[in-house]
């Protein structure tokens, strides 16, 4: 049984209005209660613990100072929003975080008025906040906009596009840079170095605005707020101030984001005095206040359920290595064979498994930070130079780099290998992270070869095939989580481009699977067999080029052909239908059905539950096959 922490200050808060009635000491005490509540709740649910713990004081202070929800508090990514949820009327459901039917692990408009803008992909907050300020200035019923963005997320291009725009617009807008010197992995890049430099930079001349902030500090607090007093520092960029000032922002900080004696006066002063865009640089510690998080390598970025006392996380006992690990290991094997192989990740070295290659070939693995667009074009450049880049990006984040895939890779027919992890539904992260669309958006592109792994051995074959394929771009997708547990060879084999395979022979219906739903299709075949219906199962392997001969063979020899994929409409099934329709083969002799994700976003839950919601279980597949073939259920007690 979990012992709930004592939280007297939090118990007296039903929303931010209650916080605004508290004195500063009580507000600081409230933050301690919120931290205890977040630790206790996440110990039961798992989730993004470290990022949330790092912003406890900041979140409480913002709600204490600003008039939320009229003022719009926009968290970048939104993975750090648990303290915010606790104090904005969702404490009673905080232990349902990321669970089926429960609170989302991110900000979500449908959930609360206090979530004015949903997120989960990074670096969108400043753009959205600027949108709200324009709304405010054009008479919409909205107050100030405050974007809270991390040091990892501010490295992405979108954040600079937004600051470029906001700086020249000159509207009153608050950007709070939550600088904990961590992304998921240690942060990379020149911007990260620049921000670190700001801590150490000599205090510059106080600007006019800074004088105003300083004057606004209550006398006794001035001694404590060394950083707060020097509200504008002078890291020279060749001009008169910080990079942010050069972009048109007033720069405030850096201040200690865990010290209410700095946070509250600075936020109050900023709120009182700002006339244009202000960037407040707040230094925090990821995992703050919970030793197991503070001391772990990723600062407790993403944890499973844990024991609060010891910090020990509930370990799932995998039956098989994860697809990610199989990919990472196979990539390292290929890299060993071919020195031209290089790898690119956008801030996800361990998430994508390229850290396995990195451990052996450090100088051939490039972490570009949260910069999918750059990562893709960077890979294109390396391919143009003659290298063999593997660009390993989650399906959902590859969406960010799509124009680069089209314009820089496919159009120039450059041999970039796209390793698309987290394809299909991913579970607790929910619809923002679902890898739903890549089959359609990749297969639409001329020159692109598109593969999906039916199991982890197939994935090894695809890594090797991609390494060997140098005629143009090639992509292969695979899901989150563990494989099916088959024995792995030392090295994958090269598979013929555009050739699928028959997995099992039957004569009534054919199930043509593209990707990792293969095991579910095999289960469907068992259910069909129980009805006396025999199914051929084929693993398409390729959505592009299609194995047209295989598809025609299936069509000729069965009453029904069902395509199955872990992706949205407009993907593999659509490719098959285009092909058959244009050859006049959809003539009704064999009924064709496509099984895809439905045309709606699927709420977070365990992956199996999400696929059940999507209508993609073995029972659904078997029922679709029987209905399409016009076969009635014969045996009672067998569900299809
Ligand atoms: C476009 C995009 N790429 C990658 C990610 C994966 N991701 C989520 S949080 C994160 C690190 C964010 O670092 P930071 O903004 O500093 O926040 P912190 O976790 O340190 O509080 C990454 C890479 C994402 N959410 N969106
Ligand atoms: C917030 C975010 O985008 C990542 O932390 C993501 O939740 C990681 O997902 P995986 O656990 O699938 O690597
Ligand atoms: Mg960070």
Residue ranges: pLDDT <50 for 5 or more in a row? 202-211, 220-239
Mean pLDDT: 93
Bound molecules: thiamine diphosphate, 1-deoxy-D-xylulose-5-phosphate, magnesium ion
Helix content: 25-40%
Q: Would you tell me the structural class of the helices and strands?
A: alpha/beta
CATH topology of the largest domain: Rossmann fold
> What is the fourth-level CATH superfamily of the largest domain?
Thiamin diphosphate (ThDP)-binding fold, Pyr/PP domains
**Number of beta-strand segments:** 17
Distance between the termini: 40 Å
Main sheet summary? 7 strands, mixed
Total domain units: 3
Rg value: 27 Å
Q: Which second-level CATH architecture of the largest domain applies? A: 3-Layer(aba) Sandwich
- Coarse shape: globular
Strand order of the largest sheet: 7-6-8-9-11-10-15
Organism: Yoonia rosea
Keywords: Isoprene biosynthesis, Magnesium, Metal-binding, Thiamine biosynthesis, Thiamine pyrophosphate, Transferase
Domain Transketolase-like pyrimidine-binding: 321-486
Pathway: Metabolic intermediate biosynthesis; 1-deoxy-D-xylulose 5-phosphate biosynthesis; 1-deoxy-D-xylulose 5-phosphate from D-glyceraldehyde 3-phosphate and pyruvate: step 1/1
């Amino acid at each position: 049984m979990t012992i709930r922490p004592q939280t007297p200050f939090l118990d007296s808060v039903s929303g931010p209005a209650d916080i605004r009635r508290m004195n500063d000491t009580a507000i600081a005490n409230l933050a301690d209660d919120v931290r205890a509540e977040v630790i206790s709740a996440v110990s039961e649910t798992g989730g993004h613990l470290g990022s949330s713990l790092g912003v406890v004081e900041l979140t409480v202070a913002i709600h204490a100072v600003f008039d939320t929800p009229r003022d719009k508090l926009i968290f970048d990514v939104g993975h750090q929003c648990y303290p915010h949820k606790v104090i904005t009327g969702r404490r009673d459901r905080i232990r349902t975080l990321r669970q089926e039917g429960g609170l989302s692990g991110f900000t979500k408009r449908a959930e609360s008025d206090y979530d004015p803008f949903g997120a989960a992909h990074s670096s969108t907050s400043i753009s959205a906040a600027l949108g709200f300020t324009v709304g405010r200035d054009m008479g919409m019923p909205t107050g100030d906009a405050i974007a809270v963005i991390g040091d990892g997320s501010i490295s992405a291009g979108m954040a600079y596009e937004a600051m470029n725009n906001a700086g020249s617009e000159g509207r009153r807008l608050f950007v709070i840079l939550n600088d904990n010197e961590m992304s998921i992995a240690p942060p990379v890049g020149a911007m990260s170095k620049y921000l670190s430099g700001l801590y150490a930079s000599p205090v510059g001349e106080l600007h006019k605005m800074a004088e105003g902030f300083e004057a606004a500090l209550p006398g006794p607090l001035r001694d404590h707020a060394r950083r707060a007093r020097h509200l504008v520092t002078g890291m020279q960029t060749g001009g008169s101030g910080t990079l942010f000032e050069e972009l048109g922002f007033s720069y405030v900080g850096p201040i200690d984001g865990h010290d209410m004696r700095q946070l509250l006066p600075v936020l109050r002063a900023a709120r009182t005095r700002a006339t244009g865009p202000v960037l407040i640089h707040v230094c925090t510690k990821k995992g703050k206040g919970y030793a197991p998080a503070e001391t772990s390598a990723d600062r407790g970025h993403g944890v499973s359920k844990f024991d609060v006392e010891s910090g020990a996380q509930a370990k799932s006992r995998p039956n098989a290595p994860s697809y990610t690990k199989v990919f990472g290991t196979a990539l390292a094997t290929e890299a060993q064979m071919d020195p031209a192989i290089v790898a690119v990740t956008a801030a996800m070295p361990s998430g994508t498994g390229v850290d396995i290659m990195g451990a052996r070939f450090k100088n051939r693995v490039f972490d570009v930070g949260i910069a999918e667009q750059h990562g893709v074009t960077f890979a294109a450049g390396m391919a143009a130079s003659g290298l063999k880049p593997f660009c390993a990006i989650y399906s959902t984040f590859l969406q960010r780099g799509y124009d680069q895939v089209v314009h820089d890779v496919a159009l120039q027919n450059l041999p970039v290998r796209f390793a698309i992890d987290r394809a299909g539904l991913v579970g607790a992260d929910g619809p923002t992270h679902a890898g739903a669309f890549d089959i359609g958006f990749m297969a639409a592109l001329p020159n692109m070869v598109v593969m999906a792994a039916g199991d982890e051995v197939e994935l090894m074959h695809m890594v090797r095939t991609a390494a060997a394929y140098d005629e143009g771009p090639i992509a292969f997708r695979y899901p989150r989580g563990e494989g099916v547990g088959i024995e792995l060879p030392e090295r994958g084999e090269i598979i013929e481009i555009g050739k699928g395979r028959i997995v099992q022979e039957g004569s009534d219906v054919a199930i043509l699977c593209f990707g990792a739903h293969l095991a579910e299709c095999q289960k469907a075949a068992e259910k069909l067999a129980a009805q006396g219906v025999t199914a051929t199962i084929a693993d398409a392997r390729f959505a592009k080029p299609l194995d047209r001969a295989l598809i025609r063979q299936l069509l000729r020899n069965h009453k029904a052909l069902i395509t199955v994929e872990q992706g949205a409409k407009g993907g593999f099934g659509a490719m098959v239908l285009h092909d058959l329709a244009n050859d006049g083969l959809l003539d009704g002799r064999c009924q064709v059905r496509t099984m895809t994700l439905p045309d709606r976003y699927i709420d977070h839950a365990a992956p199996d539950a999400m696929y059940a919601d999507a209508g993609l279980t073995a029972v659904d597949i078997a029922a679709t096959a029987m209905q399409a073939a016009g076969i009635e259920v014969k045996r009672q007690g067998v569900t299809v």
